[in-house]
Amino acid sequence: MPRETAFDETTILERARDLFWEKGYTATSIQDLEQALGIRRSSIYNTFGGKRQLYDRTLAQYQEENLGRLRAVLHNTPDLRQALVELFTQAATVVHPECLTSARGCYIVNATTEMANSCADALTFVSRNREQFTGMLQEALAGAQVQGQLHEQADPAELADFLFLCYNGLQVIVQTKIERTALLRSVERCIASLPWIA
User: pTM, whole model, 2 decimals?
Assistant: First the structure.
């Protein structure tokens, strides 16, 4: 049997992520991965340890990219309210600008709905992701409070939890063919509900 050519691990992780994202972890077989990635199952096991380990790697890679985008949006923004509207809008429309059938939501939110109730490791991962996400939001909200953008009586931790709930709900509802205008109105209403100082 001819020797398999070398492959780029980053490309393999991206292709695997897209397949898991489309089909879900459970419905994706090793045969599906072989076909989509263009490598043998022996390479999948030798390089990543197996289907589950490959899935975990794709989640970790996506999380790093997602938190990096969040950090970039929130870091030292002069107008947190507008930054949050842009963050939520971008998250909802990144795959399909009209929010139609190709919208697929957030990879980690999809992992939460599929895996967290049945797998302790997945639950730990998504719980830590929530802590990191809300931690960044809380820091940004506290900074906006210091700058006089938010009322001083507001609780940044409570508001961060609220925004995380809205963000994740958005990532689910965008997969239901919601009309773009209605979705954007809801995004603006969500952000407007925070105790901003006019």
Answer: 0.86
